[in-house]
Write a structure and sequence with these properties.
The chain has 71 residues and is α+β, with helices and mostly antiparallel strands. The chain has helices at 7-18, 44-51; strands at 23-28, 32-38.
Length: 71
């Protein structure tokens, strides 16, 4: 599945609608994770590290929505 056409815009829209930070992340079982876009306040290195081992099980044909929060 292709990513969104405007990842920055989508991250901002999600953050506004959900009243929390939002990010678009490319994460999979082959190459780890990298933040494509994020709303202000997202700690990109922390989020990439949190998703780097693919905890949602994303593979070739799956595009999960994942909620991540610090505890």
């Amino acid at each position: 599945m292709f990513g969104p056409r405007d990842p920055d815009g989508l991250a901002a829209e999600l953050a506004a609608r959900l009243h929390c930070g939002a990010a678009i992340v490319d994460a999979n079982h082959l190459s780890g994770a990298w933040v494509v876009a994020a709303s202000p306040g997202i700690d990109r290195p922390w989020l990439e590290a949190a998703l780097n081992d693919n905890p949602a099980g994303n593979q070739d044909e799956r595009t999960p929505v994942v909620i991540v929060r610090r505890v």
